[in-house]
Structures are given as structure tokens and as C-alpha cells.
Amino acid sequence: MLQYYEPEKDYGTPAVVSTNQVSLSIDGIEVSVPEGTSVMRAAALAGVKVPKLCATDSMEHFGSCRICTVEIAGRKGYPTSCTTLAEEGMAVNTHTPELARLRRNVMELYISDHPLDCLTCPTNGDCELQDTAGEVGLRDVRYGFDGANHLHKEKDTSNPYFTFDPSKCIVCSRCVRACEETQGTFALTIDGRGFDSKVSAGMDEDFLASECVSCGACVKACPTATLTENTIIEHGVPDNSVVTTCAYCGVGCAFKAEVKGNTVVRMTPYKDGKANEGHACVKGRFAFGYATHPDRITQPMIRDSIDDPWQVVTWEQVIDFTAKRLREIQGQHGRNSIGAITSSRCTNEEVYLVQKLVRAGFGNNNVDTCARVCHSPTGFGLKTTLGESAGTQTFASVAKADVIVVMGANPTEAHPVFGSRLKKRLREGAKLIVIDPRSIELVSSPHISASHHLDLRPGTNVAMLNALAHVIVTEGLHDEAFITRRCEEAAFKEWVDFISESGHAPEEAEAMTGVAAAEVRAAARLYASAPNGAIYYGLGVTEHSQGSTAVMGIANLAMLTGNIGREGVGVNPMRGQNNVQGSCDMGSFPHELPGYRHLSDDVTRALFEKEWQVELDPEPGMRIPNMFDAAVDGDFRALYCQGEDVAQSDPNTQHIQAALTALDCLIVQDIFLNETAKFAHVFLPGASFLEKDGTFINAERRISPVRQVMPPLSGKGDWEVTMALANALDCPMDYQHPSQIMDEIARLTPTFTGVSYDKLDKLGSVQWPCNDDAPLGTPTMHVDEFVRGEGFFALTEFVPTDEHANRKFPLLMTTGRILSQYNVGAQTRRTENTRWHEEDVLDIHAHDAQERGIREGDWVGIESRAGNTVMHARISDRVRPGVVYTTFHHPESGANVVTTDNSDWATNCPEYKVTAVQVSKVTQPSNWQARQQQFDQRQQDLLASSREAPEHAGTS
Amino acid sequence: MPAQVEHLVTMANQIALNFGERRNMPLASERAAAHIEKFWTRAMRDQLVKYWQDGGEGLSPAVELLLQQGVSNPA
After folding, report:
1. Mean pLDDT value across residues A937-956
2. Model-level pTM?
3. CA A103, CA A52: separation in Å to the nearest integer?
4. Are A373 and A605 spatial neighbours (Cβ–Cβ below 8 Å)?
5. What's the mean pLDDT in A507-529?
6. Chain B residue at shortest CA distance from A549
7. B1 touches chain A (CB under 8 A)
């Protein structure tokens, strides 16, 4: 819903949790607050505003501005209310003549060294200094303005998203503290002393050159115009706002989309967002410009062949064309010759409709989602061991962890807002164990150092997990009481016999993992002995040939040590995409209906058949890799691809391209002409998250609202397009609004029965299961019992991958993400985030580089048994000798030309993290890159020619 | 061998191996059969059966056993 723009209430200092309450009076008003609350916050809770400048409730008190002084009965002087704790029986006066005089004097000093350009200042109307000057009743500055001042200081405009204007700085240190406490990067400091004090980035560098990660926490914290978003400078302060959810990563930050008319001028992290609590990263905060980028395609297009120009047509024509083609193909090649891929970026409602269209419209179960290539092993592994395919905790739970294990994840880059929470807990004293071939930032960064970095060889996760479990069991460190009470006895006994075998000892595993046994033993003891031990893991666990086994190994460790069912512990899969959790929840997998119920479940299937008025196929459908194999073999002929770019994101690019080329009809629904769309015959213009209502589900199982800020540029939301296609295929759908789709989901899905848009409006968000048993949702899972009843200890035999380093391919390549670019980069490459990462590069250890005569910046060829590509080299000590690393954000880098079709045994999740390669110095792009450049140029020309010839519209 | 069938053979062998074929072949075979029935399409199961009937080169003992026992019969 639209809300008129107004700043959120700021209580001055953070909320405190305490079982004890203290009662005091503020200006005669009685108020009771948790023990440890500041007088300032107590006053705010009592409805009394104490003027302030350096205090803000996202950070601890600082006590520097001296504006917030109060009088306390029985005490001398004028203590600052932000630093003074409320005490039982205290009587506080916040406004007296003497306090007013003191505050005016302080403000007078500030304003004597501040530009008086309020009327032309970009934050006119949104400036705490301006407000506070008004509150304290400042009328003149007796010092005059001729003395030494900072008004001549030059602006730093290096950062593409915000400007630093030191002439307006009051040195309140909010920005410095935000960078420390909220973000944890420590990029800012106050340099100099006294009059010379100034905010300094890095080693007195400009913001862009410093360690600043452009999260915007300092900009949000700044009470003046010193740090201001460039969009605000350009457009002025917003006049409306809408609370919505970020469309980047699986943290699912809540934002206020602040607008002028239909134009988003700023995305401000929403303080009441439970996932992010007022913090953000560079992507969600600033990189929203892609939604209105000139590359947006807003008109439907069709063509008979991918060598033809596109024809711009009407919505009616494209739906008619598409439906006819799909039915023709099924008529010729069979019911199972078509299928769909749902988006992990689109809303739950939209994903639900696509899988409904496939099952009820196409008449098969050939639907899958991008979770196939990331967290499908989480689905299999956690369902097998715990009974539900989802993380067990909230993000906030990390604040109660004592030992944190991060395995195959890089949260400071891939889930940055959660990474900040994690770093805060580590700074408070929690211990960290990192299990990763790379020396990720968390291993050693400001005020943080991992107790143990188990830098194992790629492909040895299960051996490592088994070694850790072996130590815990054989040294008697497991939680017998928990296991007896909560887990299957017979399975546990079988597993204990298995894991106790000498072959699983760290001393035996060392030869495989490359990690010293002593380190493994120490790490195991640390985790097992923690009062609260939590495991966070990512694609470095799942994207392996034993991804599912590794997930089960992680669940085993958590059950073994009793680290399930309360805050501060748990098994936490770091879901990558904004709605990949939701996409899975909505039944996008080919073998199960929404709510993770197998198609063979007659009762569940009957429920859907009754609602949808159609008989459903009880046989599992094709996974994405099966679809591509079948396409190459000529059995699979049409694909409806919603919001996914498989041609860039999926492994073994040349195989994917062959599969897409073989299709008779590829339908792509997206906001840009992405790599996959270049092979398409139908383009359905999509809508960004700003253009529709719906919901996303993040890695915490949190269902959060997505609210429309502007009308869809194409005229239709994605759900409307799918609905139109379904109706054209005699699969009736008649929804007037996405809330009705959610109502249907709730009717049919036990974990969602309590979910509605009304509830989301009231509560802000809710974590499933949300039903009669848990009407307000479920923050922590498996509290009293596991979803499957008793926990199951799965046997996790280490089966080495077939992808070995060998003489021809002696190095192992692994892949990952970075902070500023997101996944295939379709969004972030169309924003200023390219300043931080213009290309994918290959990280190579100095030893390996020297052996090959490679220097920093050289072009290097990377060759595997699947293919080869060329990138620039970067010498890095973050990788160990024998391991190289790259990202996949730019299509021209061809990272996935090199990755193979090896996959997880249970789910076919690709083994992106282990590819045997050789790296050598080269002088030109690879053959694939040369061909790809030509193909890309041709497709861009075909697109451009269709845009120039609108008279073709309507002729097909 | 078509790409699809080659992958199916690899996948089936991998499933059986990860269900503990080296420790307990019959049990692994049983579990692999259940897994394949649960997650593979009818067409994929039919292709595997046909491949086995045509000689089944490269199939692991556990996979051969589950095919012999009639699990995943063609329609």
C-alpha cells in the first residue's frame, strides 16, 4: 500500500531485551522499560522526543553531540540521555529553560561551521540537523561566519550512488559507527583531532578506492546532507513510499521503495523488515535502475526461426501463436514433448501458476526450477534426515550462536546482510570454523578471525564431514540424551558403526582432503562442545556429485550434537535467489506438488484434481538436465522458460546451446533479451519486482510481500501472461489479483493454510509453516519433534567424484559469486555496479601462475573436457595451489563452457565446484567466444531490426 | 549411444553406488530402485530397461539386479 513519505520513528538507542523491567517518569509520564534501556529510548517510548544528533537506534550510544542532555532529579549536571540508563524510580525532565539554553548553544556551534543553503540543499525537508535546529529554537549564530570553517571542502563523487560532501559534516561519527556496527567493514574512521577531525574512507582515499562496499548504511545513518544518494540530489526527496521485498538474493531484505509519482528515487532498507532490520547491500539499496533500463523489452515478439528477425505483435497474437505451437508439437511428438522452467526470481503466485499450467494444461509434470542447479540437494538431504526441505532458523538466530560453521558459503559476498549479522556475532566473541577451499573474507577480516579454516580440496566435502562426525562420536562428544529422545534408534546405531570405522578418522581423511588431522579434530571438538553450534552452508556443499550426501552429513552433525530446535543452532542453507525457496515450495519440482508432496500421494493428488478440475499424471516429469538431453535426442521439443537464463547459468554451455537450438519452440518470459532468449521463438516481456504484487520466500522460509510501485511496462504482470496462456490452452484460470492465487495455495498446502495477504499486511511477513498449529508462523523448526517425527541418521559414504585432476587437466576449478554482481548479471550489469566488477577473472595461486609463466592481467585459456574459454588472470592467495576460481556474471566470459555435466547423484544438481582444468597463457579469445560474439551480434541485430520495423506487427 | 541413455546409465550407477553398493549390494539395489521410481520419468525408466535388455554394457551389478527384479518395468 502507498504510504505518504515520512521518516521512520527513531528511538535513539537500540532496543534491549531483559526479563527485568524498570519504571521511571519522563516529564511526569510514567513508563516501564526493559532494564538496560537508555533514558532517551525510554522517553521515546513514552512519546517524548529528546533532541539528538549523534544517536540513532540502529547503533549503540556514542554521546558526542551533547544535544540530548536531560535533568535527572537528585543528580548534578546535565547527563546525556543516550548514555544514561533508565533506573527504577528515576524522574527525568527533558525540557527545562537551562536545557534549552544549552541545546541552543551547542546547535549554535554546529551551525557556525555549516552551509546555510537549506533551500537548495538536496535533503531539504529530510535533514535531522535542520529539524533539530528547529526543535531547539536556534535563532542566530553569535559567532558569525567569518572564522575558520570547513565550507570549502570538496565533494567526493567517486561512488556512483552517493556523494560525500564534507562541508556539511558535523562529525557525529554515525557513518563510522554504521560501517562498524551495522555493516562490519570498518572502512571509515575519524581522522585528525579537534577542529581538524574529519570522516576518512580507507587510508584517506575516496570512497570508491577504499574498502567501502557501498552498502549505504552510512548514507542512511547520516543526519545531514553530507552523505546523500545521487538520485535524491537529482530528483529531490520522495513523496510516497511502498514497503516491498528485494529481488536479488535469498536474504530477502525488506525495503521502502520511495517514489515520486511512478519513479523510484530511492530504496531504503526497512527498519521493521525481520530479515534485514534496516540494513541492505549495494545491490538492493542502489542497483534498481535495471528495471527502467533502455534494454527492457516491453512488447511481445515472435519468430519462426532464430535466424529470423523478431516480429513485434500484440498480446493476443503472441498468446494465440504460442498456444497453437504448443498443441501442434504435442500432437506431433506426444504429451511429454513439452515442459517449463519456473523462475526463482518471480513471485510465488507466478511460479504456482506455471506449475499449474504444466500439470493441468500441458498434461504432464515436466516442470523444474533453478533450484535444480543450486539447492536441490538441500531438498533431498533435509527431507530425508529432518523431514522438511528448508532451513531451520531465522537469520536473527545467529545472534545466539556460540560456534558458527560456514561451509561452502561466502556470506559476506553472496548474502551480505546476513554476513553483517554473522560478523557482529563473531565480534561479540562467537567462534568461527570455515570449511572452504578458498580463503574467503570471513577467514580473516577486521576484528574477525576464523578459529579454524579447513581448506579442503574441492570434491572432498563428505570425507571432511565424516571425519568431523567420527571425532565427535569416538571421543564421546555427542548429545546422547537428545539423540535418544529425538532420533530413530536403529538408524543411529547403524550410522554409529559406520562413522566409527577407522577409515573415517581425520588421519585417514587427510590424504584426501589435504587438511591436517589435528585441525579437523580441534574443529570437531569446538563445534561439539559449543553450547550453541550453528551450521551455515551454501552451494559449495550442494553443487557436487555428492551434494545430497553432504547435506545429510551436515544434518547428521547437527542432530549428533543436539543443535536443532532452538535459537542459536540449526542447519541453515543459504538459498541464493530471492525466491528460490518459494519456487520449490510452490511445487516446481517435477516429482512433487506444492508443499513437497510426491505425485504418487493419491490423497494430495486428489485434492489438486478437485480444485483444478482435471486428472493429473501421477508419474514424475523431467528435470532440467533431462529436458536438455531429451531435446538433443529429439524427444523434447518445446520449453516455456520463465525468468531463467539457462544458456548462461547452466553447466556445459555448448550442450545447453545444442539443446536450445534443437527445440521447435522456445518461449522465454523475461525482462531483457538474455542469453537464452537469443535461441527463442517467442518472447513474452516480463515485469520486474517493482511492477507487480505478490510474495517472495527467503532462506528463512519467510513469506514477504512484493508490492507494486509502478505499472508493468509491458502492460501485464507475469502472472497475467501465464494466465492468458493457460486459458488459451483450455486450462481455465480466472484470478483477478495475486492474493486470490495465494488463497488457492493456502487452501491446498498444509504449511500455508494460515497465509493471506491480510495477514502479511498485519504482520509484515510470516515464516511457514503458518497454519492452525502456528497461526503467526514458525521461526524455529523441529522444536519438539522433527517434521518426519524422529530424526534420521543417513549413511554418508564418501564416493570420490569422477572429476579428478590429471595430467591433462591438473588444476581444479571452482566457481562462486561476488558482492556487486548478481548471478548471471542480467540486472547488475545494467547498473553502476559494473564499476566494481567489469569482467569475470580467473583467480590463480602465484605458484601455479609462475609454473605457467602467467602474470597478473594476462589472458589465460581455461580448458576442461567440456570446452575452453579465455579470461584475464588475477594472482590470488585466496585459492590454494592446485585450485583456480572464477565467477559467472558476464556471458562473454564463458565460465560454464568449461563446467561439465557431472552432477549430484540424487538430484542432478551440477558439480559446478569441481572441474578439472588446465590453464595456459593465450593471446586470443577461445573459438567458442569468437563464435558466441558473432552469434550475439547477430541476435542483437535481429532484435534491432524488429524494433525498427513496427509495421510487421500483426503479420505472422 | 544417445546422450540421454549414456547419462541414464551414469546416473543409475551413481545412485546405486551412493546407496552403499560396495557395502551391501542387494540393499543398495532395493534403495536405488525406489529412488528411480520416485524421481525418474516413465520414459527414462523405459529407456534404461531397454538398454539393459539390449545388453546393458556398463551397468553396475546393483543396477542390473534391480532391473532383473522387474522394478521399473516398461508400461
Report:
1. 70
2. 0.95
3. 10
4. no
5. 98
6. B18
7. no
